[in-house]
Design a protein that fits this description.
24 helices; 69% helix; 2% strand; globular
């Protein structure tokens, strides 16, 4: 069955809520919240995008887990998918043993290879029976797990059917055995190489299953070492080149973006998923064939950024899940590591582009040559789009940092961080966190920050992108939109800039 894209997935979620409430027009906030959870889950590429899995997840939401999104307890939804498959075919009293079997198998595959032949499976099964003093019929167990779609068998080899099952069980095993020397070493290696897709996903699931300070400290250290050679990016001090470009960017009339609101929502969701998948593909080495040394160096930089983003996501998840037990001092330390790591990564990326800004301009001018005959117009548009492109990159950094810690329970700690270490970056991260929360848009916060950034065009442009994302993803009245866009001086060029890609960005996975 073909997978659903953002549009069909949203329509299915909307239809589910309308049927459940007996109302043809369900609350937009409920639909948006459910769609956000499901998009976060299937968007990681670990769960099939087919409608049956969307429906199963909707059942999980209805079972009362929806509020857990704010604490980033997405692991509960993966657990729900697994139990949904097992409970119809496994006696209640035997579920814990079957789950343990899968955990042990995930570790065995991690030590050997993702797919094992019959001989290797029999070896594992024998070791399992001996380790736990059990007698488990091998063929019956294999039929059970294949029938429940936990495992798959093809061409004489056995493997986990879907990535989420493998990572869920592996994360559980690692969490239960962190004090084992071999497990501990492997976890450290994975935490130090989060840019590798398998490693990052493993640590993500480990962090869900474990409350051990060891994992938290590993992630703090990983972010502290990421781009350690760079100081944090400053929106007040490090934007001279971009501010110079901003002076040449023509300010257009303020107007509401045309088109259907839902279509924009689908576009934004797909862009987010494509951005993440592009980074992951670069980290996997899938886009490095036939590249020059200069291009490979850029790809390696982007791979490091992917690892940084994964670290930000995991540390944010830990903060959300443990908000009630972490002391203020620990929260501030972890928040500082998360934000500073992101800002160092931003500087690292920007300095790479700044080393050859003229080349970037030339490349964009080549793209524009066939679009307009005027040389002056080409140069003006190129400068405008360089500014817009760099603004888009900065927006992605800030949005990811804010989204990772977006929880009502963490806002006091984020506010304290901003108060004690006041900077444009910290103010933007706090606002990004607020904009991700459900409820009324923090209009006064946006307007106050717009006034503070009036003389900082680059920071102002990032602020505008964050606010526009909120408007396009969540229901907002026309009056609020007009007020917001008037304050932010949002014009058509700024909106169109969101879609701009250089030739290189297209080649490197829609960066």
């Amino acid at each position: 069955m073909l997978g659903f894209g953002a549009r069909l997935r949203y329509q299915l979620v909307e239809r589910w809520f309308s049927l459940g409430d007996g109302n043809s027009s369900p609350r937009s906030a409920d639909v948006d919240m459910a769609n956000q959870i499901i998009s976060n889950i299937v968007g990681k590429g670990l769960v099939p995008k087919s409608p049956i899995y969307v429906l199963i997840l909707l059942q999980g939401l209805e079972a009362g887990h929806q509020g857990e999104l704010e604490n980033s307890a997405l692991g509960h939804y993966y657990q729900y998918l697994i139990l949904h498959s097992l409970l119809p075919v496994v006696r209640q009293e035997a579920v814990h043993e079957v789950l343990n079997y899968c955990q042990q198998l995930a570790w065995f595959l991690n030590q050997t290879k993702p797919r094992i032949d019959e001989k290797a499976y029999r070896l594992f099964h024998a070791q399992y029976e001996e380790k736990f003093d059990l007698a488990v019929p091998l063929e019956a167990r294999k039929r059970l797990l294949v029938g429940a779609k936990i495992l798959t068998e093809a061409e004489g080899e056995l493997a986990f059917r879907y990535p989420y099952s493998y990572y869920y069980f592996l994360g559980t095993y690692l969490a239960d055995n962190l004090r084992d020397e071999e497990v501990g070493k492997r976890v450290v290696t994975y935490a130090e190489n989060l840019h590798v897709r398998e490693y990052g996903n493993t640590i993500l699931f480990l962090a869900h299953h474990s409350n051990d300070d060891f994992v938290m400290e590993l992630m703090e250290r990983a972010l502290g070492q990421s781009f350690a050679e760079y100081p944090e990016y400053s929106f007040e001090k490090d934007t001279k080149i971009l501010e110079a470009l901003a002076k040449e960017v023509k300010q257009e009339a303020v107007m509401l973006p045309p088109g259907d609101t839902k279509e924009k929502k689908f576009t934004i969701i797909e862009e987010d998923l494509n951005f993440s998948e592009g980074l992951a593909q670069i980290s996997d080495g899938k886009l490095r064939e036939e590249r020059s040394q200069e291009e490979i160096a850029v790809l390696e930089l982007v791979s490091e950024i992917n690892g940084l983003f994964k670290g930000i996501e995991i540390l944010g998840m830990i903060l959300k899940a443990r908000f009630g037990s972490l002391t203020s001092q620990k929260k501030q330390r972890l928040l500082t590591a998360l934000v500073n790591g992101g800002l160092r990564g931003m500087r690292g990326l920007f300095e790479t582009f700044a080393s050859s800004p003229q080349q970037l301009l030339i490349e964009i001018e080549e793209v524009l040559t066939n679009q307009t005959p005027s040389r002056d117009r080409i140069e003006a548009l190129a400068k405008q789009r360089v500014f817009s492109f760099m603004s888009y990159l900065a927006y992605n950094f800030v949005r990811r940092m804010g989204s990772s810690v977006s929880s009502k329970n963490l806002i006091p700690a984020i506010t304290r961080l901003q108060t004690e270490t006041d900077s444009g970056a910290n103010r933007l991260v706090r606002l990004a966190a607020l904009l991700e929360l459900r409820g009324k848009m923090p209009m006064s916060e946006v307007i106050n920050l717009a006034k503070e950034f009036d003389d900082l065009p680059f920071a102002f442009s990032v602020l505008a992108r964050l606010a526009m994302r909120r408007v396009q993803l969540h229901e907002t009245s026309d009056i609020e939109k007009q007020q917001l866009f008037a304050e932010l001086k949002v014009g058509v060029a700024t909106q169109r800039g969101l879609d701009f890609k250089t030739k290189n960005s297209k080649q490197t996975g829609k960066m």
